[in-house]
């Protein structure tokens, strides 16, 4: 990176953040959906914990609640639906405009999307966690360390989700319409990211599969670090795994962009 | 030769066209740009015209590095556009009339700030340039308005400002006046004339609007099926293609066909002769002389003059070659 590169992507990050402020009602709608499904998860997972006799795989009712509300709150910021604007821009040909700028299109895309996602923490994650905690209570760490490392882990999770979804979008250079892959992504990602149940409740073979994908790095690991389910060296280990996935997805995305750009046929004149 | 702003040699781009037959998927190759030879010198103002699908947009996309040529070479501002896309982006400003480069949900001013950051303009420089463009393109009333709430005319002016913010040496406008009303078109053209005069910018523009060409371009290129069929001045184009104007005449009452008026051709009559269309050759006669001759024969109620549109000129050039 040459001198003065970082401010460019920082500005795009801020632009994404600002753009997201334009639709408060949509944010509110998202929050309502988060809460509804949050209470559904409470009903099912609390029952699971109680049926197992106050603890399942180390989860108590209090820590399960923390998992539920943190994961629900992150849902507005972690892209698990597989779709970003770039996919549409490739389909309509508007991607031509992106290539007219003196920026790395991959980094510009990820920076902008991450900016939108970080904004969504305010109207979606904060109220989600607050309401959940008031309604059913939750057990959270009492030392600052998990929160500090957790913030890094959460940011990494957000960026990984977009550097991975970027891979789905960029396949559009070849296929133009990527909806099929996007739907497949959506089905798989939430499950392996630990959106429905914590992945440690999976049977070991399924857990191994999940751990071989980038999806736990998007949501499960940040939740584990934030709730201090994983602490100390193991927590740093999870963050390390996250950064490895971040590097890997960015690298693959870069290669696909370089090769795919040669295949690009701008749609729509 | 190396100081050309645009230089192409045998530039060619083919696309695979997938057609669906009854059972088989056929693949044919379509040549959008065919051995294009083009050289544009600094400060020139070039109109690039041709029918839809003639290869204009494809050429532009190769000039700025969005598309890879199938064969041949292209250099823009001395750079290889595809390989040096990002360096080139600092030297070229592009407006695609049908696409937006502004941030839809943000105020116009915000888009300019983001673009200034992307182009790494020093803050003082960026604000001076923004002020200059805001004044000249009369953006003052709506710089604080989100882009999605602008009218088309307002948005196009903002798009042009966005493309020129970094003072590009080469400005490429792809259908900049599409969908604009007469006043908006005129404002935009006036601005572009001023901008060229004060900054020596090279201009390449595609359009379907003869007015754009007449007011902005010294040189005209007509392209057909991916290759250049005319390259020269606008006057030369008119001579090649003919410069007929059409008069639509409405009479008080039905009138016999107006044949035999010097330098005119009777094109047709409607409503029993109460409306007639005459074409006249503006090289040899004037509208006033034609009207005087018409007035001797019948009482006029109303008239309109139709300028030849670009499609007509292009069609005539295409026909002349075939």
TrEMBL record, chain B:
Show where the ABC transporter domain sits. 6-250
Cell location:
Cell membrane
Give the keywords, sorted.
Antibiotic resistance, ATP-binding, Nucleotide-binding, Transport
- BP GO annotations: response to antibiotic
Q: How does this protein lie in the membrane?
A: Peripheral membrane protein
- What domain of life is recorded for the organism? Bacteria
What is this protein called in UniProt? ATP-binding cassette domain-containing protein
Organism of this sequence: Flexivirga caeni
List the lineage, top down.
Answer: Bacteria, Bacillati, Actinomycetota, Actinomycetes, Micrococcales
